[in-house]
Specification:
Elements: H1 14-30, E1 40-52, E2 58-61, E3 86-87, E4 90-91, E5 94-98, E6 103-109, E7 121-128, E8 135-139, E9 152-161, E10 169-175, E11 181-186, E12 195-202, E13 212-218, E14 222-232, H2 245-252, E15 258-261, H3 265-268, E16 291-292, E17 298-299, H4 305-314, E18 318-323, H5 341-355, H6 361-368, E19 377-382, H7 394-408, E20 413-416, E21 427-434, H8 436-441, E22 455-463, H9 472-487, E23 492-497, E24 501-503, E25 516-518, E26 523-525, H10 527-537, E27 542-549, E28 555-562, E29 567-574, E30 582-587
Parallel strand pairs: 1-30, 2-15, 2-23, 15-18, 18-19, 19-20, 20-21, 21-22, 22-23, 24-25
Antiparallel strand pairs: 1-27, 3-4, 5-8, 6-7, 7-14, 8-13, 9-12, 9-14, 10-11, 10-13, 16-17, 25-26, 28-29
Helix pairs in contact: 5-6, 9-10
The chain binds alpha-L-arabinofuranose.
The site of alpha-L-arabinofuranose has 11 residues, from loops.
Length: about 625
Amino acid sequence: MASRYFTNETLTTRQVLSKMVLLAIAGAYSGVGIAQPATVTLNIQLDKPVHAVSPRLYGLMTEEINYSYDGGLHAEMVRNRTLQDHGFGGVAHWNIEHLGNSTASIAIDRTEGPSAALQHSLEIDVKQADATNRAGVRNEGYWGMALRPNTTYKGSLYAKADSADVGPMTADLINDNTGKSVATATRPGLSTEWKQDEVTVTTGKIETSAQNHLLLTVGHAGKVWIDLVSLFPPTYKNRENGNRPDLMEMMTAMHPKFLRLPGGNYLEGDQIDERFDWKNTIGPLVDRPTHRSPWNYQSSDGMGLLEFLEWSEDLKIETVLAVYAGYSLKGDHINPGPALVPFLQDALDEIEFATGDASTKWGAVRAKLGHPAPFAVKYIEIGNEDWFDRSGSYEGRYAQFYKAIKAKYPQLELIATAPLKRMKPDVLDDHYYKRADEFFGDVKHYDNVDRNGPKIFVGEWATREGSPTTNMGAALGDAAWMTGMERNSDLIVMASYAPLFVNVNPGGMQWESNLIGYDALTSYGSPSYYAQVLFSKYLGTEVPTSSANGNAERFFYSVTRDSGKGAVYLKLVNASSVAQPVEIEMTGAGVTLAQTNTISSPTRIVPVQTTIKGVGAKFSHSVPAYSIQVLELQAK
Ligand code: AHR
């Protein structure tokens, strides 16, 4: 019997393990003639804690990039649903469909729309059609539409016709390959006023596939206008306007502690009027004008501020809310002073929307939208990467935001996005995008940083190797860097990898090397994703004293301890092409002869199974203090 002291969880997932096995084979082969590295001895003094591990060390960073929401997490299946995307190439992702001898044309009508926010629509001018020769439009979705058997999809659209004679409109989900409808619904005749219509359709015994599209047709000549055409599969927790379950589950498995939102560059926009203007992203979808994102596509704003906050809530984590602070990517800025006040007021309103109770003005708006309870927010980030602002206005902008936010919300911690000379921010957001080798060389980056300065939020970081998602080399760079962050987690309060998502279809990616890839149907995690899962799952609560003796190239480690669970987490990263022998000496486990199991801690001392590698005819083994062990050896 051994005490929990020797618990040895395998810090490799199946996927990483298979990679590691492959690397081990390559290492053994190429290792011919290569000097084998000397043993590294790790000395760990468990009874000498150096500092606590930040409880919110690992989190998520998100923005609309690489079709992260539209065509990604946000489960909407209709692409260009509000017809904002059109130009020389016509109306993007929509096509005319004339069946039989019907004839029709389509165009954007800038004089017709269902709301003040959506002032134009798709006009379908049907010259000739009848019940069997129907005419209309099809939408191709985000690189297809994923349909599964026996599944209900919720559709809706705004529509009007120039005459009641046009009659009903039919919605079909059509398989691209067979041309057959796999689900259909016909609604009552169209009105001559804009009206929203909703419908559900259920598939039968079909094969799961993303090669499907939506077809909307009428069987009578006349003009029809449509807008905000929507189709949703079942969503995570069945939320209206909700998220893809597979991606939510992948994030849950990362054990994140916070979600930084809504950007990144997406917060700032290229121009000031393309910023994330949160007030335009709440309420009914028909009242959201949508906006251009700096990643060169129109954002549907289906993922608005409330949906962002609910995303954090569904993952049971805090929101790190970034507020627009008067600087946009192409260089426009607002000087501190009176001109900045409206932007500051927007930020204060935004914080109230997220955190105020229902008696406050914006808390009441949130309650009216269906969420009376305030959200958990502790950190507010003032802008994004404001070191890009060469005007030098950030000092003043941060100070103005700081004063006003702290006056109303003294409990909030305020994050600066660039170093400041005139004041010490609560937290400073540092970003690192590097190659693996650069991270290997920089793991000690924070070891000697002044502890009297601001706390650090590594708000964006990644090893940029591999595309569209990262490879094993990148995962090693990431893991090495994380050992440094854990060692310095007295200073580093939070860290979030970026970017989180990429749609892997051609044209889906604007930024190479991402954590999670997907298409309309499925998703997968990169090796970096699994490195994150491991580090976050085995976080620990304190960093004990430790040291390493021996010269090893590209070998990194981190040791943390979870005193509550009685567990020690030793993360070992070998980024060299040969196996690295390691000897581990742990002292001060705090096992005493008086220790025992109790009714409230019944498993403090129980048998723990572990596998010892490298056992041969002759091997050395150290039996820990106060332990009872049985070694089972294979000897045929
Ligand atoms: O993560 C991609 C981009 O990198 C972010 O939008 C920006 O903050 C950084 O420059």
